[in-house]
Amino acid sequence: MIIKNGLVFTENNTFAPMTVHTSGSLITALTAPDASDTNTTKNASDTATSCSANTPDLAEDTSVFDAAGCYVLPGLTDIHFHGCDGYDFCDGTPDAFDAIGSFALSHGVTSICPATMTLPEADLSGICENAAHYRKAQLCCKTAQQTADLIGIHMEGPFISAHKKGAQNDAHILQPDASLLRRLQKKADGLIRLVSLAPELSGAISCIEECCEEFRFSVAHTEADYDTAMAAFSAGADHVTHLFNAMPPFTHRSPGVIGAAFDTPSCFAELICDGVHIAPSAIRAAFRLFGEERIVLISDSMEAAGKPDGHYRLGGLTVFVSGSRAVLSDGTLAGSVTPLYGCMLTAVSMGIPLESAVRAATINPCRSIGMDKLYGSISVGKKAHFLILNQQDLSITSVIKDGLCLKAPHPKGKPADSRHSLPPQPYCSRHPAQ
Q: Which residue has the higher pLDDT, 13 or 408?
């Protein structure tokens, strides 16, 4: 496939006119846009397609994709979400994995690292084993082109603080245990990429020290003060799960986890930018504090994403969904109902430059879990995964994965709060002259 006439998001984190060449599932060349593109297909003007409304929902395009008037982004990567479209990753079934991957792909997310919950070891073991089988099937099955790649598992629990449990079930909380992690990783066939834990728990620091070459650790659901968080980062943790949420606030005398993460240059910080979890000013402050190279946008979506208001389940608990809010019976936020694409748009509407928001939803999450050699940017040798956005309103025109073009669906996922979803003129400080 040749993708031409679009503004491509480059590895320099800027947009530039460029032609992208792919073969099968990989990017094979990046060239300057010129007349030679038409020579590649001998008669490109006759074969160009754009997945218009007249094409099938899933159409193979082996010639030219005309991205005129569009941004060409890497496919998005969500490393922290629990479910969508009525399914939860912890359902642990092929049907659930298929539904989640299909919904993610239709909303521009081409690779996923879903999160577990605080559950008994037997349940986590089954989820890990089934996910490993599913990933193996993806690698050898062409239908994997129709779902997001399952590139990892995020273990969010059971090593969390009961006092900052959020929407987790405290009946199943455990102390950090290296042996348990290794048992689960064996079941997952190495698929566990990230482990969230509260560093103040007994054994947490020693667990990080012992296993930091085998797992990436994230500080999460915690009451840790600055010194305890710094001990975790010194031991090998390099990530913070949903910054601001389920942790002590950042204050001038008690900077806590947020201050410790700031003082650790290698630390990534997740943000749930759904217009509900974090105020716009705090989003802008986080990007300024950590820099665009360290922020990881996540959806933290649960099974209600893409579904109507009503009652749903998360980790065995009942969740009440109304509009953009998902809460437990006591009002505790219980994940989001906004896909990652919507969170990226919300960040832009809050004043984050488009390039910074794209970076935080593509290469940064891949770097944070060690999957950036194949995913996260438009570069020769990487996966041919693309999100095509209209330059005028940032709406999805198409999603391209491994040579197949998926046209934009009718709006299905819940957007972020309408006040933040689609700005009339997205702020993008480094657009090339047009």
A: 13
